[in-house]
Design a protein that fits this description.
The complex is a heterodimer of chains A (about 80) and B (about 130). With about 80 residues, chain A is an alpha+beta fold. Chain A has a single domain (about 1-65), classed as Roll (Ubiquitin-like (UB roll)), CATH 3.10.20.30. Chain A is built from two helices and five strands. In chain A, strands 2-1-5-3-4 form a five-stranded mixed sheet. Chain B is built from three helices and eight strands, in the order E-H-E-E-H-E-E-E-H-E-E. In chain B, the strands form two sheets. In chain B, strands 1-4-6-2 form a four-stranded mixed sheet. Chain B has one domain: Molybdopterin biosynthesis MoaE subunit (Aldehyde Oxidoreductase, domain 3, Alpha-Beta Complex). In chain B, a hairpin with a 5-residue loop joins strand 7 (about 115-120) and strand 8 (about 130). In chain B, helix 2 (about 50-65) packs antiparallel against helix 3 (about 95-115). Classes of the chains: A alpha+beta (about 80), B alpha+beta (about 130). The interface between A and B is medium-sized, with 18 and 20 residues.
């Protein structure tokens, strides 16, 4: 199946692209996909602890099973700032 | 009103978008780009569909939590110069207390959960830094 993987801000700069089309087996979990992505882009590995994961525009748990056509986004911590 | 736009924010239009006959108070929060340490602009990057869904959900939650009548959120995308407005939140309610509270709560949540990132653009072209 094919999955669209999106990268933003610092992650986009590390990967060198905002979107990558990923071909993978059926039944893959989000966490397994992230393992594959980090293996291809080792520069992201140090960010794993603070990375938020979204599928189809909503933050989901890493054990989510992915489906054909899903849009997965790897999100750095958002801007924040003092109140 | 929910907008993510490159154009400058028309604050009067944001206020007008929440006006209602049954609301006696309108609070407008405006976030502007601050000049810190040679910064001349901020570049905003947005995951648009998720940001719009987050704004919509925050407005629904604010209505439920504070009993406000109407709320609008407008956020800039791309480069915003020092002194210009990057975000506007308008909130209308029957009385002012809940409008102030809802506006403050939503802005905190926008900073905490909405997928928007900013990078500082400094005087020297080669000097950029992600702002937290």
């Amino acid at each position: 199946m094919r999955i669209q993987v999106l990268f933003f801000a610092a992650y986009r700069e590390i990967v060198g692209s905002r979107a990558v089309s990923w071909s993978t087996r059926e039944g893959l979990t989000l966490e397994e996909l992230v393992d594959h992505v980090l293996a291809r882009y080792p520069g992201l590995a140090g960010h794993r602890g603070s990375m938020l994961l979204a599928v189809n525009h909503a933050v989901v748990d890493p054990d989510r099973i992915l489906k054909e056509g899903d849009e997965v986004a790897l999100l750095p911590p958002v801007s924040g700032g003092a109140p | 009103m929910i907008e993510i736009q490159r154009a400058r924010i028309d604050l009067e239009a944001v206020v007008d978008s929440v006006r209602r006959d049954d609301a006696g108070a309108i609070v407008l929060f405006v976030g502007s780009v601050r000049s810190d340490d040679g910064v001349r602009a901020l570049d905003y990057e947005v995951y648009r569909p998720m940001a719009i869904a987050s704004f919509s959900s925050l407005i629904d939650r604010a209505k439920e939590k504070f009993g406000i009548r109407e709320m609008s959120i407008v956020h800039r995308l791309g480069r915003v110069a020092v002194g210009a407005d990057s975000v506007a939140i308008a909130c209308a309610s029957v009385h002012r207390t809940e409008a102030f509270a809802a506006c403050a709560w939503v802005m905190d949540e926008v900073k905490r959960i909405v997928p928007i990132w900013k990078t500082e653009v400094a005087d020297r072209k080669d000097r950029t830094r992600r702002r937290r």
